[in-house]
Amino acid sequence: MQDRDLYARILGLVDPWEVRDVKLDLKAGEVRVTVAAKLHASLQCPECKKPCPGYDSRERSWRHLDTCQFKTILVADVARVECAEHGVKQVHVPWAEPGTGFTALMEAVVIDWLRSLASIKAVAEQMRMSWDEVDGIMARAVERGLARRRRIRVKRIGVDETSFQRRHEYVTIVTDLDSSRVLHVADDRKRESLESYFRSLTPAQIDAIEAVAMDMWGVFIRVVRDHVPDADKKIAFDKFHVAQHLGDGVDRVRREEHRALLAEGDDSLKGSRYLWLTNPDNFEPEQVGAIEALHQMNLRTSRAWSLKETAMCIWRFVRRSNARAAWKAWIGKAMRSRLEPMKKVARMIRDHLWGIVNAMALRATNAASESVNAKVQRIKRAACGFRSRDRFRNAIYFHLGGLDLYPAGVSATHTTS
To answer: Fewest Cβ atoms closer than 10 Å to its Cβ: which of 57, 154, 246, 390?
Structure first.
């Protein structure tokens, strides 16, 4: 009797459900808890909650949290009802969601383990479950989390892509820049990848968008222009990507000059790559001396580096007119530099100046998206890679979507108390 009362409290059973029997099977290593509804219990449709006549019943079982290293199996004879409106439906049970083989508390504990960035394999071994069972719990958690997500109006979004595997395979990720939540994950980096996000929004949600931080990928630019009003005033080309192009330009100049100097027996630029690419604010004392010595040699690389650093200083402007004037002056200087890699970057900046000025005026940066990208790579490493895009997408939503993942009636506090 005490065992039955204990398990009734553990399972949170409410009327009309009660524990009828508890059996320990030492050979199987299981505790089997039999639950049944009281005889006077009325049946109702799980959809409309109206009283309905019984149709039939069948025995079902659920895995619960272990009891002293014994697997706990919950067994119940669950009725089906015949509703005039919804047809034959199985009645809901309070300890599990429909279509699962685990109690809600069991799923909540597995979710807690997974949220600690433990791999599916590690959780499966710890909980004595199969890999597919743990993966199924994660997939159901994401599905219920997305279904519960409210239609909020996000003002600033970031669009970025991250690699799925080593080959040139990507997923597109849309992030709320203010909360760093992942809003949308889609395969590839094609038009449909981003367009599917905007199609999921209401007109009010689209109107609420004030800034879209992104790189200069033409396909995504066209998608935003097609879906967001006044897009050319809201698209912001992130400082990080502009800096990346500038750094690549400097490095191409360095490589060309290094080859020319080596042909003359001069290895002055050997091992200097990171000096030219590092932010001067982060220099160590010995690096300051090294870069100053290189500047005194009147190198082409030094002139390219000066162009890069001047460009980065322009980001301090806020007013559109001042920012535009400063960039135009820089573009003119770069085009006269006779450094073809830097001229190429200058032409790219000139063609996308409107979005760069937007980023400065709106103070829009894709730093949150870059942070999310780094976390995605950490998730991928913890899982030792993903072969399935669906599982990769679920993992991103699970860890970074800010979703309510737990089964109904169970929260994180229930699993840690």
So the answer is: 390
pLDDT by position in tens, the chain (length 417)? 567 777 777 777 777 788 888 899 898 899 999 988 776 567 888 888 888 888 888 889 999 999 888 999 999 988 888 898 899 988 888 888 888 899 999 999 999 999 987 788 889 998 999 999 999 999 999 999 999 998 889 999 999 988 876 666 788 999 999 999 999 999 888 999 999 999 999 999 999 999 999 989 999 999 999 999 999 999 999 888 999 999 999 999 999 999 999 999 999 999 999 999 988 888 888 888 999 999 999 899 999 999 999 999 999 998 999 999 999 999 999 999 999 999 999 999 999 999 999 999 998 888 888 888 888 888 887 776 677 788 889 999 999 999 999 998 776 545 544
Rounded Cα–Cα distance for residues 410 and 400 (Å): 20
Q: What is the pTM of this model?
A: 0.84
CA distances from 245 to 169, 237, 281, 312, 331 (A): 22, 12, 19, 12, 14
